[in-house]
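hi got a favour to ask and not much time before my train. below you get a single protein, a line of residues and a line of whole numbers that encode the local backbone shape. could you go over both lines and see whether the tokens make sense for that sequence. a few lines back from you is plenty, here it is:
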Amino acid sequence: MPPIWILAAVLALGALGYALGRARAIASAAGDIRVLHSLPSYYGANAFLAATVPALLVMVAWLMIQPGVISGRVAAMLEAAPEAEALMLSDLRRLAQGLDRAVAAGDLSAAAARELDAETTDIRALLAAGGAALGTDVTPETLAGAQRYRTLTRSAGLAMGAVVISLSGLGLALALRLTHRDFRARNAVERAVLALLILASSIAVLTTVGIVLSMVAETLDFFNLYPWRNFFFGREWVPRFEGGSALGLLPLLWGTLYITFIALLVAVPVGLFAAIYMAEYAGPRFRSIAKPAIEVLAGIPTIVYGLFALVTLGPMLRDYFAAPLGLGTSAASVMTAGLVMGIMLIPFVSSLSDDIITAVPQALRDGSYGLGATQSETVRQVVLPAALPGIVGAILLAASRAIGETMIVVMGAGAAARLSLNPFEAMTTVTVKIVGQLTGDTDFSSPEALVAFALGLTLFTITLGLNILALYIVRRFREQYE
């Protein structure tokens, strides 16, 4: 049973529960809602929540667990090496989906899909219309695994539908049984909503914990295969999947910090000066036009910035600066990526700084003017010192954003891992190499693939440290105004 059908059935039972719960509460009060403990809508909401929330939570948990269980049972029947098992399972899933599409399109009956023979049937021709591209040939073992995967998936779907709908009906019946005029429906609904809010707030925390734990586990596997001293202090980045790799972090970290530094040199002065002008000098009409225009930069996809660096800014820097000065002949360089990334960060610095400067109380400005200070003196000596902690926090958040950027670096700075002070040479960053090491047909048991998780954990630690520093500065030095 498709999950969308199950969801529709649960929501229908919930809507029915709302109507029945409300009507039952009013009937228990003989039509006089004044004798009810809660408003009639609370009784309906209680029945709706009882019929939907537990059932949907079970459905979500089922959908998260089901693929792993089915893959494990199918993998048990495969006679494949561990390194080839993941590819075979991927093909099995695609083949099973292709069979499902063929059945849905009428090209194949459900019975025929269960009885296909890989030796007598051209499976690829049959699935070509369905777009199922396979990485290996369709062997009898592969086809049998796909048919087994389809059978288990359909059975699990039917079982999930029966369990979820039954649980929804049970919750509805229990809620209706408890519904009477003295039932504290409002308290029950508020407790349920509070629990949902706590669950929603916990998802972000649990997701972060899960991401960290997954990276830590893979990073430990990497350090079991590659010395951690060579990783953290190595000066060469030369991955070779056949062995003998040099996986030093320092060239990647240097490129990341170098590009981020140039980006901040562009974004901080321009963004901060723009924020000061719009908050202190610009009139309402100009501000209403300039502020949205600056914030448009934040909505431009990073791939567009990358194309701008590749086609326009990179060749211009090479032709007018790098080549005449003898500093390089490549359009891809640290300067190209840093300048484009700085343009991208301008709205982050400008918008946050503008909000922070605007939040400084007008009484401070009036007091400064009363002492005879000019507007520029007031901005320099009163407004900026009061807003400085927030501005520093905004700059550090922009730095975190720059450290995690990928597309601009790929298209603007190249992929060369080197230690150099020349800003017109091609370099690369940690994020680019994470993508590179996990792209293509890689062996995920090799240190050359596992190094991506060590790089990711390193990058996560750096950005987390910057965010904590920004939070500390804001809390430690912010001014409290009444």
Notes: The chain has two domains: 3-183, 237-477. Strands lie at 237-238, 246-247. Residues 237-477 form a domain with the MetI-like fold fold (CATH 1.10.3720.10). The first strand starts at residue 237 and ends at 238.
